[in-house]
From TrEMBL, chain B:
GO biological process, one term: tricarboxylic acid cycle
Keyword annotations from UniProtKB, A to Z: 2Fe-2S, 4Fe-4S, Iron, Iron-sulfur, Metal-binding, Oxidoreductase
Keyword Cell division: no
Organism: Nocardiopsis eucommiae
UniProt GO molecular function: 2 iron, 2 sulfur cluster binding; 4 iron, 4 sulfur cluster binding; electron transfer activity; metal ion binding; oxidoreductase activity
Hydrolase found in the keyword field: no
Cofactor: [2Fe-2S] cluster; [4Fe-4S] cluster; [3Fe-4S] cluster
Record family assignment: Belongs to the succinate dehydrogenase/fumarate reductase iron-sulfur protein family.
A matching Pfam family: Fer4_8
PANTHER family: SUCCINATE DEHYDROGENASE [UBIQUINONE] IRON-SULFUR SUBUNIT, MITOCHONDRIAL, SUCCINATE DEHYDROGENASE IRON-SULFUR PROTEIN
Pathway: Carbohydrate metabolism; tricarboxylic acid cycle
Protein name (database record): Succinate dehydrogenase/fumarate reductase iron-sulfur subunit
Residue ranges of domain 2Fe-2S ferredoxin-type in the record: 4-90
CC annotations in GO: plasma membrane
Amino acid sequence: MVVGAGGAGLRAAIAAREQGKRTAIVSKSLFGKAHTVMAEGGAAAALGNTNAADSWKVHFRDTLRGGKFLNDPRMAELHAREAPERILELEYWGALFDRTEDGRISQRNFGGHEYPRLAHVGDRTGLELIRTLQQRIVALQQADAAEFGDPDERLAVFAETAVTSLVREGGDDGRIVGAFGYRRVDGGFVLFEAPTVILATGGIGKAFRTTSNSWEYTGDGHAQALRAGASLINMEFVQFHPTGMVWPPSVKGILVTESVRGDGGVLRNSRGERFMFDYVPDVFRSQYAETEEEADGWYDDPTRHRRPPELLPRDEVARAINSEVKEGRGSPHGGVFLDVSSRLPAEEIRRRLPSMHHQFRELADVDITAEPMEVGPTCHYVMGGVRVDADTAASDVPGLFAAGEVAGGMHGSNRLGGNSLSDLLVFGRRAGLGAAAYVDALEAGEGDSTPATGVLERAAAEAVASSLAPLKQGAGENPYAIHSELQDTMNDLVGIIRRGPEVERALERLAALAERVDVLSAPGDRVYNPGWHLALALPNMLLVSEAVARAALERTESRGGHTRDDCPEMSAEWRRVNLSVRAVDGRVELERTPSRTSPVSCSHSSTGTSWPST
Amino acid sequence: MSERTFRVWRGGPDGELTEYRVEVNEGEVVLDVLHRLQATQAPDMAVRWNCKAGKCGSCSVEINGRPRLSCMTRMSVFEDDEVVTVTPMRTFPVVRDLVCDVSFNYAKAREIPSFTPAPGTEPGDFRMRQADVERSQEFRKCIECFLCNDVCHVIRDHEENKEHFSGPRFLMRVAELEMHPEDTADRRRTAQEEFGLGYCNITKCCTEVCPEGIHITDNALIPLKERVVDRKYDPLVWLGSKIGRRPKDTPIAPNVRRPEEGRGTA
C-alpha cells in the first residue's frame, strides 16, 4: 500500500507492481494533482549532456556541500548515481524534456550545482513528471486489463482518500498490518489490510503562514510514522525558498522558480545593488564571483568565470534576502527585486519561463519581461523526515517504508534545488523494491503473514470513534481558527530566523493549542466536508510542529535550514550529530544520534576542493 | 476592503444557490473569497482545490456561467457591485456544493493506447529535436482541469454522447501521442471510431476556456482530423484493404471499458 500519489508514491507503486505485487495507491487528492505538479525548475541528474565534465561524483559532492555535510552519505550517493537512469526511464515512458542542439535532454543551471544539471520542461517540470508517471500507471493497468480482465487487478488508485492512522501489531517488533482512513467524497471509512505501507505523503508546510505548499501538506505521514513508533530525523531543518511572491497578500508565498536565477535573473535591493555579493560564505568563496562582470561572464563561459552569487544554495539566499529587508533595503511590499527583464529578451523569457510570466501577469499585474518581480522567502520543504535505510527505504518499524519529502536524511540540513524531483524517482523506486522484498521475505518465513486476530478490528473501532468526534462536538473549537493560530506561531517563532526564547514560547503555545484540538467542532455531515477534514489533519500538524520546535531548540548552532540568531555559528561538534525524534505517550522526545559518515571518497572533484572542517 | 455578494451552489444535484455577503480585499481571487466563506460562515462548504497557483487544475468551477479556475479569477474582473455566482461544472455530476464527480475523465484516459516506443529501443536511445517535441509539449502543458470537457457542447447538454466522446482533453492526448517523435502506434482510426473525433465541429469553446492557453482546436483537433482523413482516404490504404492487407491500428486496450464507467467513483 502506497500512501500518497506524488512523484515518490507513483514511482514506488510502479516498482512494486513491476515486482508482481498487488499495489494500492491511496491519495488525498485526485489522481495527478499531487504537490509534485508545483515543482518548476527541473530534476537534477548528472547526465553530462550540457557539460560533459559532470559526473555523479560532482553531483554527490554538491549535494553534501549544499546540505552542510549532514546528509546521509549513502543516500546522497545512491541519488547521484541513479538519477540519470531514472530520468532516461521517464523519457522512455513518454516524457518530453527540453532538448539540446544534438537532440538530447537539455540541462539548466541551478543554485549549488556546479554544472548545468537540471533536466527540465520550461518551468513546469513537476507537471511533466507527475503526468508521465500517471500515464505509466495507466499503461500498466491496460496491460493488466488485457492479462487479467481487470485494469485494477494489480494497481488500483484510491483517489480522494485520506489515511488517518497506521495499524501495527503489538510489541516492540510488531509489524505494520494495514491502515485506516476515510473517503473525502462520501465520508465513508476504509480499512486497508496490507503487509507493507510506503509513506509518500510529502511535507509539512501548511503548519506555516507563508508557504508555497498546498493544503495537502499537513505532515500526515510524519505524524503517523511517529505514532506508529518510527523515528524522524533532522526535523529542525525547514527550507525557506528564497523567492516566493510577496504581493498581493492573497498570493503571498506562491513559488517563483529558481530557474529565474538559473537563467540569468538577478536580485537587487531598493538601492539597485546586487546584494548577494556581500553574502558569500567562506565555504563557497572559491566558487563564486566577486564582481558583476565576472558573474555575468559565467553564463557564456563557465570555465573561465566563477558563478554568480545569486546561485548560492537556497538557505544562503533566503537569509540574505531576509537581512536586506530587515535592514531597510527591501522593496515596497517587504521583499527584494528579482529582475530578469533587463537580462534576457522578452521572447526568451516567455519561452523559458512561461508559467512565471503567466503567474505574475494574472495574479499580480506584473509583466516580468518589462519589470522586476518582488520576492521574499516562503516555507517550501522539510529536510527532516522518517529515518530510513538508504538502500531499501525501510523505517525502524517492520513493514513501514518512506520515500520522498516524508523521508529524512538525503538532503542533510538544506536541499539543493532540483534534488527533490530526482529524490522522488530514485527513492520512490527503491521503496517499491524494498517493500516488495520485505513481502517476499515475510511470505517465505515460517511465521503467519496474516495479522493477529482482532488487531485490525480494534484499531478500526478506535479510529472510527476519534474520527467522528469533531462532527459531534457542537460548541467546540473552529478548526480554521486553530489552524490560523498554529500558522502564525510557527511562522513568527520557529520561522526562518530562530531564537531560543521564542522557540520556547512557541512550544508553550503549541501545548495550549493541543488541548484545544481535543474539542474541535466541524458542523455538517460526512459528505465532502472540508471543515471536518481539516479537523482530522490538525493533530498531525501540531505533533509535527512540536517535533520541529523541540529539535530547533536543541540544536544550538546555525546550519542549512536552521538559523539560530542566538547561536549564529556552524559548529564542528554539531556536524556529527543528528537529532532524532520519537513519540512517547503522545509526547515528542529527542535523542542525539551520531550522523552517518561517508564510505565514498570525495577527493574527486573538478575544483579539487577538500572537505572543510564544519 | 469591500463587502461583496456571492451566490454559491450549496448541496447536491437538488441543491440551490445560497447568498452570502463577504469581505473582499485587494488582489484577491475567487478562491480566496470561498476560503473566507469556509472560515467564517460555511465551514462545510465543499470546494476542491490544491495548489492555488493555476498549476494543478483542481479548482474548476463556473463563475457567472463561465468555466474557470477559481484560483486564477481575480475579483477585479468583476464590476464593483456585480454579484458573483459560483456553481459546479455542469457537465459532470455534482457531489456536493462546488465539487463534481469527474471520474468520466479518468475512465476516458484509460482507453487511449499508451505511448509505444519502437521495440528494440531502450532508455537513453532517443534523440529528438526541440522543434519536433514542441508540438506535443504544448499539449502536455495541460493541467487536467477538465474545463474544456465541461464547456464542450457535445457532452455538456447531451448525456447520451458521453459514451462515444472522449472530449477535447483526451482527443488532444491522442494528438499529443500521434505527434510524439518516438511513438510508433497508430491511433487515427480509434480517434474517429472510439473517441468520437467526428463529433467535434470546431467551435473552439475548449480553446477559449483553457487556462493554459493551449490552442486545442487549431493545434490538436484540426491536425488530428486531417490525419484521420489522410488515413481514411489514402488510396494505398484503400487498395491494401481491397486485397486483404488491413493496415495496423492500435486498438483500445481490452477490458478497460466497464459498464458503470462515467458514473460513480472507483
